[in-house]
Amino acid sequence: MSDTTLLAAFLGLIEGLTEFIPVSSTGHLLLFGHFLGFNSAGRTFEVVIQLGAVLAILTIYSGKLIAVARAAPRDRQARRFLWSILIAFLPAAVIGVFAHKFIKTVLFETPMLIAVMLILGGVLLLFVDRFAPRPRHDDAMRLPLNVALRIGLFQCLAMVPGTSRSGATIVGALLMGVGKRAAAEFSFFLSMPTMAGAFAYDLWANRAVLDLGAVSDIAVGLACAFVTAALVVKWLLGFVSRNGYAFFGWWRITAGVAALALLFVLG
């Protein structure tokens, strides 16, 4: 097994570990890639391996999703849930299409920005975890549509690497009065169209620079991301129900400070 394949497997594990917790999987991937000298064409590797995490969440929630799809034609609540996911997804989809080039060529190439956003996001997560409004919504599948839209607007903040898609949606949900467990679960549901859309669009936008020789490394990274993400998703809901999100706030701050120190020492 080549060094590149081992690095791809390691980055896949990082992706799966961090995708669904509010610490920024993209920020971790880009920082590790920067310090380890890994650079994929068009940053395609970092986006494509997210498909492993998407497949993991689809596998875990397949039964619930199939039940909702079957019930939707006759069940108003099932249709409302589907509408809530669509409404929350649209803001990031629109901004992502129009700002794609700037995000990939500028924001993705600025390690200092990523480290700073990790720290700022950690401080915000600690604050919101402690001082969020009393929960009014405890079922991720029954959120009002206006709450779903606001969570979707928060998700747009994750266009900046280091912010965290799950972190932005969870913070938004907590501020909207969604319970801690329901906030994480709605973030899971919203990740499916968001990450699948990002994967498809990025693959199309970078079709001219795709490195076919890297397909095997991408497959290894994707498989590692799938396994790790499945384990994290099964663990996370119970953890946040008991402990909240403070642990992840301190994780972000520690990672951001360490990255700044390494940037200062190593460049």
Automatic annotation (TrEMBL):
GO terms for cellular component: plasma membrane. Its main location: membrane. The keyword Transmembrane helix applies. The chain crosses the membrane at residues 47-69, 81-100, 112-131, 182-201, 208-233, 245-266. GO terms for molecular function: undecaprenyl-diphosphatase activity. One of its GO terms (biological process) is response to antibiotic. Keywords: Antibiotic resistance, Cell membrane, Cell shape, Cell wall biogenesis/degradation, Hydrolase, Membrane, Peptidoglycan synthesis, Transmembrane, Transmembrane helix. It is found in: Cell membrane. It comes from the Bacteria. It is a multi-pass membrane protein. Its EC number is 3.6.1.27. InterPro entries: UppP (IPR003824). It is an enzyme of class 3 (hydrolase). Catalyzes the dephosphorylation of undecaprenyl diphosphate (UPP). Confers resistance to bacitracin. Belongs to the UppP family. NCBIfam families: PRK00281.1-2, undec_PP_bacA. Bacitracin is thought to be involved in the inhibition of peptidoglycan synthesis by sequestering undecaprenyl diphosphate, thereby reducing the pool of lipid carrier available. This is Undecaprenyl-diphosphatase. The gene is uppP.
